[in-house]
Known about the structure:
There is one protein chain. By secondary structure, the protein is α+β, with helices and mostly antiparallel strands. Helix content is 41%, strand content 26%. It contains eight helices and twelve strands. It has helices at 8-14, 70-73, 100-109, 111-137, 140-151, 167-174, 178-190, 206-215; strands spanning 16-20, 25-28, 35-41, 44-49, 55-61, 66-67, 85-89, 93-99, 153-155, 158-161, 194-197, 200-203. Strands 1-8-3-6 form a four-stranded antiparallel sheet. Helix 6 (167-174) crosses helix 7. The radius of gyration is 18 Å and the shape is globular. The two termini are 34 Å apart. The relative contact order is 0.14. The mean pLDDT is 85.
Amino acid sequence: MLPNSPYYQAIRSLGTLIQVKKHDLLSNRAQKDKYVYCLEQGLCALHSISTDGREQIYQYFFPGDFVGFIPAFVKSYSDETFYAFSITAKSACTLYQIPYRTFLDYVDTHPDFYRWLFQVTVSHYDSALRHSYALQDGDNITSLCHALMELSTCQNGVCLLPKDFSYPELSNYLGVHTITVTRLMARLKEAGIISKQGHQTIIQDMDGLTALAEKGDGAK
Length: 220
């Protein structure tokens, strides 16, 4: 998370504060990206859309995350693989928009920032790998529990899943049908692990959620 970095204020000062709407495209190599973003408010995701219209989400970005900086270093790819991936706003977002040249000039003149940026890259890579492993190795209930642990935010002892994570959104992240997410969330609610307050999901028993994520029970 960028706010915990000594570079937070400096990075903000490099950019222009902008607002985007839900579903707006922030980054896609086919459209010749020109900007790096510092996310102030909202939710973004790295995703792809298959030829039959199915969405696959690989990683989410939360307030404080640094978004879309890899293409600034990689001008072109040897094939079309990475052109399938985009970063899109999943909610209304406020971001600092930083031109590539401004960003690269700052990197060149601040070697400590470059080392910190490497740590951010590793963190994003690790997050994507963990998510991929959870989908491959776990069953549906295990994958859902991992996602709830990863995506929830806790303050003053209360853990909440941001409202932007609707059941269809979770189904895209987990690669399962929305009906499956609905059924499994109902099961967690019956077990007292989560509760619902309007459209807000509250994690009532984080220890129970963690135990279920680690163990699983073979549910499909």
